[in-house]
Design goal:
globular, about 325 residues, about 45% helix, alpha/beta, D-Maltodextrin-Binding Protein, domain 2, single chain, eight-stranded mixed beta sheet, 11 helices, two-stranded parallel ribbon, 10 strands
Length: about 325
């Protein structure tokens, strides 16, 4: 009986201690790990959020870029960090792709994190140069069927979300593209404009300026509905592949075991920050749809995407590292 009473007492004291700790949170600076280089879309989202969250949390939220393995280095650092709310991460669409591509990650891509909230999401655009004879996604897929492995995709690099989206497109259509890898979206876009490759899959933000100038033609977008920046461009699903959908995203995660009270506090701060008109406008200028999620919604989304990309790697026999 005494043992039971002692156990209950310890449990109560621990609960009180955690609650008190969460109530005092934060009492020092929060490190915001970003697995992407400064200046890009992912880094920009993190910096806008860090600046606004600093105001309401009353402590600095400091962006720390840890670049390597398409975000995997940052994820490993966060997974190993103390679960106290003072190390958080800007996760993005490459995270579930890495889970499929890399066979020996030093962390569990879903279970080693507390998923806090999505911040933005955005589709990809399948585009060709304006002089291309391909005027629709059906034209592209028919050309690939007629010449297997010869229609070239300007890839943003092996294992990138853009590369995997093209592979998913090919897999669902029963065709094979020729991947031509470049070191990022910008070089792949330049190659497409120069006629070095037949098409590319890239973020919608990158192609919109070239649509206005007439240098590119977008055949389809990968979202479930038409994208706000390109209302006249059909979706992949509308173009003959029902059910096709890829939407990349950015959001916040923390190490597994971070107290629920702190997760809830950070979720509330994210919701507050993106409701600020100036913040929302700035985030939207990066080309995303700005919206929050519950921790469970974010976790479920990451888990679904890990399963989807893992299946694709298996079905399409994509090389793992």
């Amino acid at each position: 009986m005494r043992t039971l009473v002692n156990a209950i007492t310890v449990a109560v004291l621990c609960a009180v201690s955690v609650a008190a700790y969460a109530e005092d949170y934060p009492s020092r600076a929060i490190k915001f790990i970003v697995g992407a280089p400064p200046g890009g879309n992912v880094d920009s989202v993190a910096r806008v959020m860090a600046q606004e969250m600093t105001k309401s949390l009353g402590q600095p939220v400091v962006v720390d870029n840890k670049v390597g393995l398409v975000g995997s280095l940052a994820a490993e650092l966060v997974a190993r960090a103390a679960p106290d709310g003072y190390t958080i991460m800007l996760a993005f669409g490459a995270h579930p792709v890495n889970a499929a591509i890399y066979k020996s990650l030093a962390y569990k891509p879903v279970d080693d994190f507390e998923w806090i909230s999505i911040i933005t999401s955005y589709p990809f655009a399948v585009s060709v140069r304006s002089e291309s004879p391909l005027h629709s996604l059906r034209d592209l897929l028919d050309a690939a069927k007629a010449k297997p492995g010869q229609v070239s995709n300007g890839s943003s690099g092996p294992g990138s979300v853009q590369h995997m989206t093209a592979e998913l497109l090919a897999n669902q259509a029963g065709v094979k593209f020729l991947e031509v890898p470049y070191k990022g979206e910008a070089p792949a876009l330049t190659a497409t404009l120069a006629g070095e490759v037949d098409f590319l899959v890239t973020t919608s933000t990158l192609v919109v300026p070239h649509l206005g100038s007439g240098r590119l033609r977008t055949l389809a977008v990968t979202s479930t509905s038409r994208w706000k920046d390109m209302p006249n461009v059909p979706t992949v699903a509308e173009s003959g592949l029902p059910g096709f959908e890829v939407t990349s995203w950015s959001g916040v995660a923390a190490p597994h075991g971070t107290p629920a009270a702190i997760v809830d506090r950070l979720n509330a701060e994210i919701r507050r920050a993106i409701a600020v008109p100036e913040v929302k406008a700035r985030l939207e200028s990066f080309g995303g749809d700005v919206h929050a999620s519950t921790p469970k919604e974010m976790r479920d989304q990451v888990a679904r995407e890990v399963a989807r990309w893992t299946k694709l790697v298996h079905d399409a026999k994509i090389a793992q590292e």
